[in-house]
């Protein structure tokens, strides 16, 4: 249990950095400088007030200087990242696939909360994640039953890279086509480019099967939860901007967990 525990602690630290990205990237701020600060009073946060989860509990969710409320998103992101890192190393050990899925989960956590708060999916994580997915397709090759059957003499590396690239292209193109059709029928945007780039990234990491499952599950989650929100908030569905990227990220995490458990996937 030592390795998963250390991975979980590392995940808490990564989660703290992801919080910085979630707040700053949609606002076009540097994630390096200045040091962490309170958005309400602009006071820099001391290192001892920047300990993941524990500081939030110790300060009862408020800034030490001005007393402003600290969003619960901060400990949630840290805890979720820590738990996912723990689970990943518990399932895959210290291996290339573990690094791949830890990276994948960190990206999804960031996009989930970024889209939920700002309706922005930063290119640093969608396009950057797309590039990372192609790299991991070479470092931690995925399997493809279809490609292996059609091209039995292909090496595992060639199969993995082809699956990764094909999944990214096919799923993003399909989502773009659906968005274009919706716009032509309804006269307004139904799908943002951020969602399309995000789906391509998921395909690069999980392959075609994983991306399709993610799309299906994300659409179901978005439809059900969106309708519930619209009903209780008494809003018009046409006036509610669905954070589809958040539902895609949640679905991608669930599918990734099943991949790691060996229930489905490569």
What does this entry look like structurally?
This protein is mainly α. The protein folds into 2 domains: 1-94, no CATH class; 95-266, no CATH class. It has helices at residues 2-24, 54-58, 73-92, 96-118, 123-139, 145-150, 156-186, 193-233, 244-261. Helix 5 (123-139) packs across helix 8 (193-233). The longest helix has 41 residues, at 193-233. It is globular, with a radius of gyration of 20 Å. The chain starts with a helix and ends in a 5-residue tail after the last helix. The mean pLDDT is 90.
* Amount of beta strand: under 5%
Please describe the biggest sheet, giving its number of strands, its sense, and whether it closes into a barrel: none
Shape: globular
The domain count comes to 2
Order of helices and strands: HHHHHHHHH
Tell me the structural class: mainly alpha
Radius of gyration: 20 Å
Poorly predicted ranges (pLDDT <50, ≥5 residues)?
none
Helicity, as a percent range: 55-70%
State mean pLDDT (0 to 100 scale).
90
Strand tally: 0
* CA-CA gap between termini: 25 Å
Number of helices: 9
């Amino acid at each position: 249990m030592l390795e998963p525990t250390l991975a979980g602690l590392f995940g808490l630290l990564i989660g703290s950095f992801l919080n910085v990205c979630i707040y700053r990237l949609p606002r076009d701020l540097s994630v390096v400088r200045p040091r962490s600060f309170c958005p309400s009073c602009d006071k820099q946060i001391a290192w001892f007030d920047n300990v993941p989860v524990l500081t939030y509990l110790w300060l009862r969710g408020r800034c030490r200087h001005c007393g402003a409320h600290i969003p619960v998103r901060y400990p949630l992101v840290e805890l979720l990242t820590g738990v996912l890192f723990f689970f990943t190393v518990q399932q895959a050990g210290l291996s290339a696939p573990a690094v791949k899925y830890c990276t994948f989960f960190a990206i999804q956590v960031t996009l989930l909360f970024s889209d939920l708060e700002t309706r922005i999916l930063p290119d640093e994580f969608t396009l950057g994640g797309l590039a990372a997915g192609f790299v991991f397709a070479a470092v931690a090759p995925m399997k493809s039953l279809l490609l292996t059957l059609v091209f039995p003499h292909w090496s595992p590396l060639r199969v993995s890279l082809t699956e990764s690239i094909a999944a990214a292209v096919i799923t993003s193109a399909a989502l773009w086509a659906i968005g274009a059709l919706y716009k032509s029928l309804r006269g307004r945007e139904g799908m943002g480019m951020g969602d399309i780039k995000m789906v391509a990234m998921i395909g690069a990491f999980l392959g075609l099967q994983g991306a399709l499952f993610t799309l299906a599950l994300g659409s179901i989650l978005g439809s059900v939860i969106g309708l519930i929100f619209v009903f209780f908030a008494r809003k018009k569905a046409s006036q509610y901007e669905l954070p589809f990227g958040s539902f895609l990220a949640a679905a991608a995490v669930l599918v990734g967990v099943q991949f790691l458990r060996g229930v489905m996937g490569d």
